[in-house]
Amino acid sequence: MSWLTEYVRPKIRTLFTRREVPDNLWHQCPNCQQMIFHTELAKSQKVCGNCGFHMRATAADRLSWTLDEGYSRIELPKAPADPLRFRDQKRYADRLREAREATTLEDALAVAHGTIDGHRAVVAAMAFEFMAGSMGAAVGEGIVAAARLAVLQDAPLVLYTTSGGARMQEGAISLMQMPRTVIATRLVKEAGLPFLVVLTDPTTGGVTASFAMLGDIQIAEPGALIGFAGARVIEQTVREKLPDGFQRAEYLLAHGILDMVVPRVEMKATLARLIGLLRDPFVDETPPMRLAAPDPVAPPPVETVQAPG
Ligand SMILES: [Zn+2]
């Protein structure tokens, strides 16, 4: 034992051993590689301050960014678990259990009701963090429940989509959710309520082919990938080089598939404005625009001619 081993070595060791520093204090932007401090990222709603890249967000993020404080999440109906007893590299039941533990969600959807800048609304948000937002029976049930809640509360339905497509592990049952969710959107429309869809990165497959494209107003986040089949599959099928930006929000806006591309920080205010316009178009002080033609001048009385007796 010497001064070196007793004093210097432990001192050096403390200099190099990792302290209890959480490793999630910094995030790297996947687009420009800039390191962003986590509090900055929370403030900017997971948008890179350097390049404006919109990072993926969780369903819980969507609800808290969209709804005013004091909103309530609803419990979604239970769907039959693993109806096909499916197994690939892992059992489907195990995949579900792991996803539930990792996300604290029951399935790839969260639904809440509350207000958006004072306007009542039901908001449903798909969760990419839960098995890539794939749509199985539980998501279908959840969309139907959200639509029914909107009708019951006489409130518009706002739906954030993100999905890798149908849930393979549920086979044909996952495909049946396409017509089911379409019927759910009809319930909202038949009740005369606005149905607003916000497409986020990525929205693909069976979700794009069903309820995600049926909004009264189709909104997307900048740069979001939105499509049915993957670009490579399409390229191989049509044997043509696809244009730059194909299946991205801006391309779809330019080609008439979308109505608006709205940056995330402006999303809440935009949704509130749209709901206001659609539900109470004449609440402001200015007199409503006159759409009907002015009353026509009364026609001159037709002279009645006495028929000769
Ligand atoms: Zn960036």
* CATH C-level of the largest domain: Alpha Beta
How many strands appear in the DSSP assignment?
9
The CATH superfamily of the largest domain appears as 2-enoyl-CoA Hydratase, Chain A, domain 1
- Termini gap: 144 Å
| Binned strand content | 5-15%
Mean pLDDT: 90
Large-scale geometry: globular
User: Helical proportion?
Assistant: 25-40%
Instruction: Write out the strand line-up for the largest beta sheet, numbering strands in chain order.
Output: 3-4-5-6-7-8-9
User: Which distinct ligands sit in these coordinates?
Assistant: zinc ion
CATH architecture heading of the largest domain: Alpha-Beta Complex
Tally of individual domains: 2
Helix and strand pattern: HEEHHEHEEHEHEHEHHEH
Largest sheet: 7 strands, mixed
- Count helical runs: 10
Radius of gyration of CA atoms, rounded to a whole number: 27 Å
* Structure class: alpha/beta
The CATH topology assignment of the largest domain is 2-enoyl-CoA Hydratase, Chain A, domain 1
Low-confidence blocks of residues: none
